[in-house]
Structure formats: C-alpha cells, structure tokens
Amino acid sequence: xxRMKHKWPQEGDLVVATVHKVLNYGAFARLEEYPGEEAFxxxxxxxxxxxxxxxxxxxxxxxxxxxVLRVNPKKGHVDVSMKRIREDQRTRKIQQWKIEQKAEKLLxxxxxxxxxxxxxxxxxxxxxxxxxxxxxxxxxxxxxxxxKDSLIERGMDEEWxxxxxxxxxxxxxxxxxxxxxxxxxxxxxxxxxxxxxxxxNSINKDDVSVQCVGAPRYRLLVKSSDYITAETILKDxxxxxxxxxxxxxxxxxxxxxxx
Length: 259
What we know:
Blueprint: E1 14-23, E2 26-31, E3 38-42, E4 63-72, E5 77-81, H1 87-113, H2 118-133, H3 136-146, H4 149-152, H5 158-171, E6 177-186, H6 192-201, E7 208-214, E8 217-224, H7 227-247, E9 251-255
Helix pairs in contact: 1-2, 1-5, 2-3, 3-5, 6-7
C-alpha cells in the first residue's frame, strides 16, 4: 500500500480506493494511499446519469478512482465523487498508482538490504524522495541512470543512497529510444562488392543494426538511452561507411528517414 506523507488527501485530489461496503444511498471505500482512512461516495456522485440501483455501478472489493470533494479530519470524513473525473484521468491515476506500488516494493527491498523495515524507510528517506522527485519511482529511475551520487547530492544518507541505487539498477531498465537512418552506397570498382562489405563492416554492430533494404540502400537502426546519443551514433556510422566507399571512387549519401 503506497503511503502519502500527509494523513489526509486534499480537496480536488484524485485517489485510488477499494470499495468495502455498498448501501442503498452510497458506498464506503478504503483509501489505498492513506492507510486506515476511508471515503464515502454518495449515490448522487457515482455516475453522471440517474442511478436507480447503486450496485449496478459499484460492488464490494472494486478498485475505483475518485475525486475528493470534502475533507473533515476532525470527524474523519472524506467525501469523494466517481463522476467528476474524465476517463483519461482515471486511467492515468491507476497507472501512476501501480507504478508507485512497484516503487514501494523496491524501497522495501532496499530497506531489508540494510536491516531496516518499510516503516523506517518511509520515515528516513521515502517521504523525502517523494518531495524531491515527485514520487518514489522517479527517485529510483534517477538513481538507476545516474548512480548513487545523484541521491547523495540531494541530501540522502550514503548508506540509503547505495542501497536504493543497487536495487534500482537491478530492477529498472533505462529508457530506450530507437531511430532509423539509411545510407545509399555504390561502388563502380571491380571489387565493388567487397568495398561495400568493408564499408558496412566498419560500422560497430554493438551500436548499430545494419539491414539491406535493396542495393544500394541499407537501413541503419540505433537504440540508445536518449535521442542526442542515438543521433550521434547514427551519423558517425553512416559517415564512416560512406567515407570508405568514396575513397574507393564510389558514391554515398545519408538519409535520416526513408524518402
């Protein structure tokens, strides 16, 4: 169960909840991000249309996304609405919540690696990570990509930074972009086939995938962590292949996209 730093949600927030009691006039649901708290959905806030039977719209154990209408901490009341959100907002909130569930599990793994529990993890670094990076998962992504120093520079204890980074690198794949370019290379020499082969073999196959589209055109496919790096790798590979062909008296041209 992902935990928010504040005990209560704010008016207007979107929350994830699990319905546990359905009555004729409304339903009660446990707030997933606020342990121990629940929300009430009045029948008039279940759907935009007229609701004859509330059980046609909500049921026990159903996960819902709702918008907070009112919060009364003194009475322990949170009123929410299921009808005052768009479908894209509902989908985005559920996806975000699932990602944060994964992040919480990673935080728990990191805590266990230094003989601490999840409660201690939240108090010592978890809430701070949420404030600094926007959410837990964002902190894990940064540490997986940039290393523990990125966390230490933001004030995290070195022991925690090392533990979190180790877990992040094992469980989070770095972002990947893919771009494609094309080279047209032609050789008129007697050993032209070998020259073309040498030109293509000059490309580092660890960085670039080479495919024949149909002579004289060859596709170059690059995968990298960011577009700037990918573009550099692609252009360098194309230039190297073209240079070899030109030196042998042939012709070469690079196209960023297939024309």
